[in-house]
Design a protein that fits this description.
With about 325 residues, this protein is an alpha/beta fold. The chain folds into two domains: about 5-175, HUPs (Rossmann fold, 3-Layer(aba) Sandwich), CATH 3.40.50; about 205-324, Rossmann fold (3-Layer(aba) Sandwich). It has helices at about 20-35, 50-55, 75-85, 100-110, 220-230, 235-240, 270-275, 305-324; strands at about 5-10, 10, 15, 35-45, 60-65, 90-95, 115-120, 120-125, 130-135, 140-145, 150-155, 170-175, 205-210, 230-235, 260-265, 285-290, 300-305.
């Protein structure tokens, strides 16, 4: 029987996330490679807008209106909807490697007894099943794994795939909500992430401050450069651990993965843990006083100098060009 790939989408304020568009694209590609089919699933209190957007990537989308997600954790509701589709031929489930995606995957593993391959940075069809690559050991090794069973669940990292719309839009089918078969925790409060209005993962320009900025006051320069370049501020683990900036800005193995058109690192040494989260950037520019800093190994332009001299000079040049 041909495989059927189910892309389980996540939403923010009723709209499809970037990662969900990437996962839907992956589902369609795998379906094409295997001769199978691709489906999309949206479970939300008001799924219509996100479902319509998801249908630009896969030929068929199931929109489940579930008011329970407004007050409960999302994963049990999404898992119930996905579980109900197993009887319709779904053989593989793709979800995001996010907090909700991991909860969803764990719930489905318990419900279905399927295998799980987590944190995929690449997925292809090898003739018998999906072949999943993942970065491990702080980016020092790449694993390639397949599912022992014919069915399974894969969680996918942001920016592992480039979202591409299908040649023609798909159809959207409304489905009734399914009661969670596992307890759904009630959400008592929601706290917006500081700086969440500027999505680090989706930014085309990212300006990053490392240990070399010297302290929280050093991020003032990082902020100015980000504003001048229309970018978003990021940070290394060392900066976050020192308390200079919020964890929400951390890039790396234990932070966020970015794939901007331009990455500008100020005082960033380039430890492997950080490189895992940014080495896919199209252009990497780094400023560091240490000519032997590891970031120089992957930088397209490596400026050896004091960031507090280079940064202001760059700001002056950017402002003069803007005024020209």
């Amino acid at each position: 029987m041909p495989p059927v790939f189910l892309a389980v989408a996540e939403t923010v304020d009723g709209r499809l996330t970037k990662l969900s568009a990437e996962i839907a694209t992956l589902a369609r590609v795998l379906a094409d490679e295997s001769g199978g089919a691709a489906l999309g699933l949206v479970v939300d209190g008001a799924p219509d807008a996100a479902a319509a957007e998801l249908a630009t990537y896969v030929p068929r989308v199931l929109a489940v209106t579930d008011g329970g997600v407004a007050n409960d954790t999302w994963a049990p509701h999404a898992a119930a909807a996905a579980n109900a589709l197993i009887g319709e031929g779904v053989t593989h489930i793709l979800a995001g490697a996010t907090a909700d995606g991991r909860d969803l995957a764990g719930t489905l593993v318990g419900l279905l007894g399927w295998g799980l391959l987590a944190n995929a940075t690449g997925v292809t069809w090898d003739g018998a099943g999906p072949r999943v690559t993942a970065s491990v050991l702080g980016g020092k090794a790449i694993t390639a794994s397949t599912l022992a069973q014919g069915t399974g669940i894969v969680t996918v990292q942001l920016n592992a795939v480039t979202a591409e719309a299908a040649p023609a839009p798909g159809i959207v089918e409304a489905r009734a909500a399914v009661a969670p078969v596992t307890p759904a925790a009630v959400v008592l409060d929601r706290v917006s992430e500081a700086g969440a209005e500027a999505s680090l993962e989706e930014a085309r320009v990212v300006i990053v401050g490392g240990r070399g900025v010297g302290g929280p006051e050093g991020f003032a320069l990082v902020d100015e450069l980000a504003a001048a370049l229309g970018g978003v501020v990021g940070a290394t683990r060392a900066s976050v651990d020192a308390g200079w900036i919020a964890y929400a800005r951390q890039i790396g193995q234990t932070g966020k993965v970015v794939k901007p058109a331009l990455y500008l690192g100020l005082g960033v040494s380039g430890a492997m843990q950080h490189r895992v989260g940014m080495q896919a950037a199209e252009t990497i520019v780094a400023v560091n006083r240490d000519a032997d800093a590891p970031i120089g190994e992957i930088a397209d332009l490596f400026v050896v100098g004091d960031l507090f001299e280079v940064g202001p000079a760059l700001l002056t040049e950017l402002r003069s060009r803007r005024g020209a």
